[in-house]
Specification:
Strand content: 25-35%
Order of helices and strands: EHHHEEHEHEHEHEEEEEEEEEEEEEEE
Number of strands: 21
Number of helices: 7
CATH superfamily of the largest domain: P-loop containing nucleotide triphosphate hydrolases
Helix content: 10-25%
Largest sheet: 8 strands, antiparallel
Number of domains: 3
Structural class: alpha+beta
Length: about 425
């Protein structure tokens, strides 16, 4: 039985969809989000008044919807997005969190940050220019981050007279890269963010397009199977000992479920020691659960008292993750200082913090050409590389493709405590 066929109770109640937007500079990302918020009536009156005043001060003839997301003064002055802007809105069918990310090459790390938790990526393509290097770069990053749904929004269709052949030609341009990037769910929507065509309401100018609008797609796309319901993983975050008379013998292990469907009575093992016991109960503030699933935060009670602390992991006795001290991962370098081969860093993986050494740089990725560079071992800001890390103690992990939580790592500079790398375990 899969969660998709028989979802756990409450799993579908007001689903939250996180999505990110990306595209080349001036492809209209901020305008698209502004249009989405405006046409779905997710803007308050005072926000609209401020938007009208800001547009008037800039000498613009009509309301500039892009200003809804370009919140920083530097962004407004340049007319581009340079930081990740988060916006929240809801319709009767779903809640949404939008991450509007920059298009410039030098802000690759911002896109990685914004897209790291997304279910879906909207990649804008200018109908006049077609698929560009930036389109491929953003698609590659979305693929690398394990985003399972990609919407290619072919924008500015009003500037090409809403021609169907332009839309179809861009679809064909993207097909070879779709196969190369191994992206499963790719959909195409012709839109005009400026005019509102196919964003919230169907376009009267593109009667040749019979598919759903952008908002309809966002409201109905199925994300139930995006979480890992196969590999049962529970990283322990906190040991609960109330030390109160009414809970005299209570000992629970709190955390957020990283994968799988859990039920009391199952045989489990505690890593790293591998001691086996039984999952006695699953507690929440409102009582015990008969079933739990990601991304719920719960407390496990076990049948036996075992020495467990933060960073340990509870798993099924017959379904253990990979365990090792040498891990290969694809890393996006986020630090201003270059990666130091042989350098020591702090590694954060699930709830565990440990030390690690960059043992090897296998190759870097030219993300514009999707080619491997095995000669240059230097990794600097915004570059993506396959590396090997050796850790000070064993790590319990799955591949990032299977489980985004147990398959990801954060690399931190010991001296500054800055996050310098985001890694996806291969």
């Amino acid at each position: 039985m899969s969660i998709k066929e028989n979802p756990a109770p409450g799993y579908l109640d007001m689903e939250l969809l996180r999505f990110t937007t990306a595209g080349s500079v001036d492809d209209g990302k901020s305008t698209l989000i502004g249009r989405l918020l405006y046409d779905s009536k997710a803007i308050f009156e005072d926000q609209m008044e401020q938007l009208e005043l800001a547009s008037e001060r800039r000498g613009e003839e009509q309301v500039n919807l892009a200003l809804l997301t370009d919140g920083l003064r530097a962004e407004r002055e340049q007319g581009i997005t340079i930081d990740v802007a988060y916006r929240y809105f809801a319709t009767p069918k779903r809640k949404f969190i939008i991450a509007d990310t920059p298009g410039h090459v030098q802000y690759t790390r911002n896109m990685v940050t914004g897209a790291s938790t997304a279910n879906l990526a909207i990649i804008l393509v200018d109908a006049r220019h077609g698929v560009l290097e930036q389109t491929i770069r953003h698609s590659f990053i979305a693929s690398l981050l394990g985003i399972r749904h990609i919407l290619i929004c072919i924008n500015k269709m009003d500037l090409v007279d809403y021609k169907e052949e332009v839309y179809k030609d861009i679809q064909q341009q993207f097909v070879p890269f779709k196969e190369q990037l191994n992206i499963g769910d790719v959909r195409f929507i012709p839109i005009s963010a400026l005019k509102g065509d196919n964003v919230v309401d169907p376009s009267e100018s593109m009667d040749w397009y019979s598919g759903p609008t952008l908002l309809e797609t966002l409201e109905t796309i199925d994300i139930r199977s995006d979480a890992d319901f196969k590999n049962r993983r529970f990283p322990v975050q906190y040991v609960i000992r109330p030390l109160r008379e009414e809970f005299h013998d209570y000992r629970g292990y709190a955390g957020r479920i990283a994968g799988g469907i859990w039920k009391p009575g199952e045989k489990v093992a505690v890593l790293p020691n591998g001691i086996e016991t039984t999952l006695e109960a699953i507690d929440t503030m409102t009582g015990e659960l008969e079933v739990a699933y990601p991304p719920q935060s719960v407390t496990f009670r076990l049948a036996h008292d075992i020495d467990i602390s933060r960073g340990d992991m509870i798993v099924p006795a017959d379904q253990k993750p990979n365990v090792g001290q040498e891990v290969d991962l694809m890393v996006c370098w986020l630090g201003e200082k270059p990666m130091v081969l042989g350098g020591k860093y702090v590694i954060r993986h699930t709830t565990s913090e440990l030390r690690g050494i960059i043992k090897d740089v296998q190759y870097k990725i030219d993300i514009n050409k999707l080619e491997e560079n095995r000669d240059d071992k230097s990794v600097v800001l915004n570059e993506i590389a396959k590396i090997t890390i050796k850790t000070s103690k064993p790590v319990f992990y799955d591949s990032y493709k299977e489980n985004h939580i147990t398959g990801s790592m954060i690399i931190i500079d010991e001296a500054t405590n800055n996050t310098v790398g985001a890694g996806m375990i291969i």
